[in-house]
Design a protein that fits this description.
It is a single chain. The protein is α/β, with parallel strands linked by helices and 136 residues long. The chain contains 7 helices and 6 strands; from the N terminus they run βααβααβαβαββα. It has a single domain, classed as Rossmann fold. Helix 1 packs across helix 3 and helix 3 runs antiparallel to helix 4. The longest helix has 15 residues.
Length: 136
């Protein structure tokens, strides 16, 4: 399956070792699914890590390289303006441009969509098949 992770999934995976988000990233590493991302989504992630988690340039560089190697980079095309939070619209753009099967997110507004142009929008727990325990 072709999937897009919202930024919050990466943040959880990096900030909480052994989290459900970490298990989701492991699915990508093991080749179970294909991760899609875009330059805009990667920039948002790096900006958030620098601002909220005080990651230095070396840490940010490692994250950027790792995600770039892990994910298929997508060039988003047409601008989408469906959600109030503009960065969430960038996630939709990446998913549409990359012909994703699903978006994995913890964002309530995005989850409320349930789907967009044939792309399912699901929670991390649903992506992992309802795994119990651990933190997102």
């Amino acid at each position: 399956m072709r999937v897009v992770f919202d930024t919050n999934i990466f943040i959880s995976a990096l900030a909480i070792p052994g989290s459900l988000a970490g298990k989701a990233v492991l699915k990508i590493i093991e080749g179970e699914d294909t991760l899609l991302t875009s330059r805009v989504l990667l920039d948002e992630l790096l900006s958030t890590l620098a601002r909220k988690f005080s990651h230095d340039a070396e840490q940010l560089s490692r994250v950027a390289v790792n995600i770039s190697e892990l994910a298929e980079m997508v060039r988003a095309g047409k601008r989408i303006n469906v959600l109030k939070d503009d960065p969430d619209n960038r996630v939709l753009e990446c998913a549409v441009a990359g012909k994703a099967d699903m978006i994995i997110t913890g964002d309530k507004e995005m989850l409320g969509l349930k789907g967009y142009k044939g792309i399912k929008v699901i929670s991390l727990r649903d992506y992992l098949g309802g795994e119990e325990g651990g933190q997102a």
